[in-house]
Amino acid sequence: MGSPSPVESSATSKVPSRAAPLKAARNVLNVVLGGILFPTWYPSFYPEELVGKDTDRLYVCQWCFKYSKEAVPFHSHMKACNVEDNDPPGRLIYRKEPYSIYEIDSEEEKLFTQNLSLFAKLFLDNKSVFFDVASFNYYLLIQDLPSPSLPSRQIVGFFSKEKMSWDNNNLACILVFPPWQRQGLGKILMGVSYELSKRENRIGGPERPLSELGRKGYLKFWEARVANAILKIRNKSTVTPEEIAKQCWMLVDDVIVTLKEMGMLEARKKGAAFLLAKDRVRSWTQLHNVNLRPPVDESCFVEEWMQTISGREDM
């Protein structure tokens, strides 16, 4: 069995289906993650001899992402999975109730990151690195679940990042699992990726090309980040996109795209300054109900990790 996964089929709850991207021919139609049943969006690279070509339901362990198309071995694994009662693999780098972020070196946790990547591909159209994971770090978003009827914690999403990116990409792949989408959790993952850029002293952004959904998600994140930066500027009447980029640790092109999307910047040369109109920015954020509170609290990063991450700029 290529990687079991646990949960009794009779104990699963179904997530209401919603509009999803246009689906390609899928080899897995539905997944059971822990106790939650929901449909997939895209095919993944699960071994055909273990999963088949047209599986109606794949059981996936909510703690280690091992998998099975049979309920009995899945349930047996659930009882025995040693990740359930221990901390997730990797190291804790961020903690603010009810969320934690763990950093995983894929060289040290190859099977875990491979299984996580295979699961993620069921909901991602344009990512294909699933077995050659050694050059990536993975960042797990974990939510504490206070209900006595649910596990004490749940992995609800993640992003991956190249250990060494010649393009200074601070994120390669990002996914919030479908049952936990539309709760603003993607912004937490994006916020951590930019904190990595800041700690590594590298201005960067996500790997391109972005999917249409990815572009929409990043624009919302960037809009709040850029608006916040503009509203904090003091004693200046003009500002350049480059100045905003340095303050936000964003690529200049991403700042320009964001300002144009907000209607704050007309077509002009990259380095040209534009008039600061804080009242206009403030009105725009109110009109679009933009939450200016940063999704990540810098004071909640683990100090020991912060000291090690700053040394990566020389790697």
Provide a descriptive summary of the structure in words.
The protein has helices spanning 48-51, 71-80, 110-121, 185-200, 212-232, 241-248, 252-262, 278-287, 303-309, and strands at residues 13-14, 28-33, 36-39, 55-60, 67-68, 91-96, 99-105, 136-144, 153-162, 169-171, 173-176, 205-206, 238-239, 274-275. It is elongated, with a radius of gyration of 21 Å. Helix 5 crosses helix 7 (252-262) and helix 5 crosses helix 8 (278-287). A hairpin with a 2-residue loop joins strand 6 (91-96) and strand 7. Strands 1-3-2-4-5 form a 5-stranded mixed sheet, with helices on one face. With 315 residues, the protein is α+β, with helices and mostly antiparallel strands. It has 9 helices and 14 strands.
Count of DSSP helices? 9
Q: Report strand order across the widest sheet.
A: 1-3-2-4-5
SSE series: EEEHEEHEEHEEEEHEHEHHEHH
What's the story with the biggest beta sheet? 5 strands, mixed
Protein structure class: alpha+beta
Distance between the termini: 39 Å
**Into which percentage range does the β-strand content fall?**
15-25%
Gyration radius, rounded: 21 Å
Q: Percent of residues in helical segments? A: 25-40%
Characterize the overall form: elongated
Sequence-ordered SSE layout with sheet pairings:
Layout: E1 13-14, E2 28-33, E3 36-39, H1 48-51, E4 55-60, E5 67-68, H2 71-80, E6 91-96, E7 99-105, H3 110-121, E8 136-144, E9 153-162, E10 169-171, E11 173-176, H4 185-200, E12 205-206, H5 212-232, E13 238-239, H6 241-248, H7 252-262, E14 274-275, H8 278-287, H9 303-309
Parallel strand pairs: 1-3, 2-4, 10-12
Antiparallel strand pairs: 2-3, 4-5, 6-7, 7-8, 8-9, 9-11, 13-14
